[in-house]
Each structure stands twice: as structure tokens, then as C-alpha cells.
Amino acid sequence: xxxxxxxxxxxxxxxxxxxxxxxxxxxxxxxxxxxxxxxxxxxxxxxxxxxxxxxxxxxxxxxxxxxxxxxxxxxxxxxxxxxxxxxxxxxxxxxxxxxxxxxxxxxxxxxxxxxxxxxxxxxxxxxxxxxxxxxxxxxxxxxxxxxxxxxxxxxxxxxxxxxxxxxxxxxxxxxxxxxxxxxxxxxxxxxxxxxxxxxxxxxxxxxxxxxxxxxxxxxxxxxxxxxxxxxxxxxxxxxxxxxxxxxxxxxxxxxxxxxxxxxxxxxxxxxxxxxxxxxxxxxxxxxxxxxxxxxxxxxxxxxxxxxxxxxxxxxxxxxxxxxxxxxxxxxxx
Amino acid sequence: xxxxxxxxxxxxxxxxxxxxxxxxxxxxxxxxxxxxxxxxxxxxxxxxxxxxxxxxxxxxxxxxxxxxxxxxxxxxxxxxxxxxxxxxxxxxxxxxxxxxxxxxxxxxxxxxxxxxxxxxxxxxxxxxxxxxxxxxxxxxxxxxxxxxxxxxxxxxxxxxxxxxxxxxxxxxxxxxxxxxxxxxxxxxxxxxxxxxxxxxxxxxxxxxxxxxxxxxxxxxxxxxxxxxxxxxxxxxxx
Lengths: 333, 238
Hints:
heterodimer; A: mainly alpha; 0% strand; B: alpha/beta; Rossmann fold; 4-stranded antiparallel beta sheet; 10 strands; 26% strand
């Protein structure tokens, strides 16, 4: 290992990047509050953070485990509604309200995810995709028909608990947990199942249990993203969590890369920035063209799939986001 | 008490009967080979024992206890390791990681360092390549890794499905030598499914011959090797 690598190892590493991210987010949020930073950009950065949580967590199931789940927005909905209810109905000081509501969202989405996983992991492949899509629809339709949850109008006037700083903190924590999970023996087992499920069973892995672990964790983090979203946007409707949202998450996931957490970051940033650029550029040319971006984004996905099947970063990681031990071993995990 | 006893085992794929009530008895420390042509039901028998396939009738006893209600992963932790046809190593994991995953169902965690040493002693090549991805190993090395990974489960019985398939003649010899060594030094009982009847009968103590779902012959390897029917069907005229 040469000098440059040594220096790289001491400075550009996950812990420092995480601290820097949170500091920059705090600064940007502060500048935004005092009117020195464009609030539109602030909004985009916040959305990017929430989407990274969604995409990186779905990567556990669709990337590392190699299954194809289609209901991620459903779990986001569970997290969003539970968090919103806690924030709305329980009078709590703001400092306690945010963590408690987020925790509620995480736990609720995790529990629902576990139950759905128990049922769905008796199947694989296409069937799993259809069943998870079905659950997404069931959750959204159920919410739509429950008056207590506001029905199709949704919940409004949710206290504002989230800004870029809380989103940045949650994103960093999520990334850290997911990365360490992927690097753990469970992460290895997910890869085993993806590569050869029967051989996995034959070395004693309880395949259904280990699959459901990934699914439950992914659902729990989708719940976290939902909780953040609800308290950032301050209003939620069932429609924000239908299969179109799931599709959005999938597009970012496949664009960034399967089995790569760095890819999830890249995919979200690239897709979000691109969509906003298109909206502005097309809007400048002619306002009625702005909707064309909805045509261009799937086209980009098709191109990516044709040229790079595993996405931009498929199965590779940015070295500086790997655990220190792996970073020393170098590159590809 | 036999370590593994199979009584009247029958398995069907839909309407097709693959095994029509076979009986096998394997004593502790033996190498038993299961011979037969393609489609005779050899692989099916192994898959039924390791619970990958549901059975329609009969019983499988491991150390006198029925295991037909035990899930696949439970069978592994009881001490039966199945090395499937085509080896089934995990290509994107390193040799080390493959071996480590073999210890997942191992109940005696304290035995793991010794097991690893044992594996590296029998397969020095694996130690040389321990940080290499399993997918980059040669076919023979992958078979070694599959055997080593099975050893890491701390098994009492190994079910080996065509371990010599697709290997160069040199590696075929090596695989059979290693199987014999595992049996001799660790006392692991081995049920060996093979097309290469010649080699299999050389290292096995006893053998069974399976034909279209039925056991048609059984006996010591010596007897089988001299049986005219076996000679004709599986060993070729000599």
C-alpha cells in the first residue's frame, strides 16, 4: 500500500464523510432559514436524503437477496401514517415527538413487513413480485377507506418535525446500519441465497427466515423514510404511496445499481437531479413540455438496462464508504 | 444401530415415481456407494434424505430417530451434510467466506478452528487460495471447496452427489483419495453417489445398485465388482 492510499484511508473514510454530511446539512439548513440559500434546492436535498433511505433499504431485498419485491411504498405509507398519527394525536414536546414518531413508524412498518414476508417468502420470483405489489395496493386502499386516517384526503397539519438536518442524520445512520449488515454474516447469507439458494439450505441456512430478515429490515427503513416524509411535507395522502411511488424507487435502485449501497446514493442523486433539470429546462422552453420528463425518465432506464444491466454501480462500492477493514483490502466487495 | 437407515422410501415427481420404496442401511464409519444409470433415482435419494424433496412414503432414521419432519437446515445441524451435484459453491464469496458459512449450522463453535485446520491440512490448495473468489477456482478446486465446506458443518454423515463429475482424470483420482482420507481420519460416514462405478467401488466398503427406483443389488464392494451384472452394466467388459 503506498502513501497516497494511507492518507486516503485516514481522511476520506465513512466516519468523516458522515460527520461532514451532517455539518454541511446543518449549515445549508441554517442558510436556508435565514434566506441565504435557495429553498427550492433545500427541498431537493431533503428529498434526496429520504429517497436514499428508501432505495438503499430496498437494495437489501432486490439487490443483495436477489428477489424482486414491488411494494416498498406500502411500507413507507405505514411508517408515514403511524408517525403522523403519533405526532398529531399525542401531545408531546417537540424534542420527544420526532424520535418517538419515527420510532413508531419504523416499528409498525417492520412488523407489517415481517408479517407480509412470512406469507410471501413461501414464493419466489414472479409470484413474490405480484404478492408484494398486491400488498402495496391493499395498504393504500385500506388507508383510503379508513375515515380515521382521513380517507382519500389524507392527513393534514402534521407538525413540522423534519428538516434537512434530521433527514441527513437519519440517512447517515441508515446507511451505516445497512452497510454493516451487508458486511455481516447475514449479508453473506443473502448473497448465498441469491447465488444458490439450495446450496445455502444445504449448509444449514434457514433460507426463509434469513430472507424475511432482509425484508423486515427493508420495510422498517421504508417506515423511517415515511415518518420523515410525513413530518417534512406536513400532509400525506394515500396516493403518495401507491405503486407509482414504488416504481420511482425501483427506477432509482436499478439506475444506481443492484447490490451496491454506493449505487443507491448515486442512483437517487442522478435521478432526482436529472428530473429537476429536465423540469426546469423543458419548462423554460415551453411550460407544456415539462411533463415530457415523465417520458424521458423511463427511456433513460431502458437505455441503462440495455447497456449496463446491473446499473451504474452494480455490485461495486465506493471504497471510502466501505468499513475500514474492507477499505484496507481495497475496492470491490 | 445404524447411523443412517432408510426404510421403504418412496418419492414421486407428480405422477412419476422416482423411488419405489427403497431400503438402505449405512453403518457408522462406512463408505457406501450408490450406483446406477442416469435417471435411476440416485440424486433423488440424496435429496430426499437431506429433506430437499418431500417424501411420499417410508422413513429416514438418523441415529435411530426419524428425520422426516426436520427442515433442511435442521438436518444439517443434526450432522448430515449434502454436497450437491455441481458443487454449489458461492462464486462471489472468497474461499474463506465459503468455509466460514459452512460453520453456520455447526453447534460446536469451539471446534471451528480445529475444523478449519483440518480442512486446510487435507486441501492445502484451499489455504493457498483462501482470499480468492470461489468463482475463479477450477472445477476440481471448487469440488474441494464444497467438500471442505461440508466438513466445516462438523457432520457425521456426508452425502456426496457425483463428486467426480466433469473433472479432469487427475482431479478425479484426487477427489476419491480425499474422500477416503476424510473417512479414514475423521471417521465420517459417507454415502457416495457416482457414475464412475469403478472408482467408487474401489474406495467404498459396500454398495447398492439402483435401477428405475428400486434397489436391485447390494453387497460388499468386492462382491459387486465381481458380479457379472454390475460388470456388464456399470464397469464395462474387462
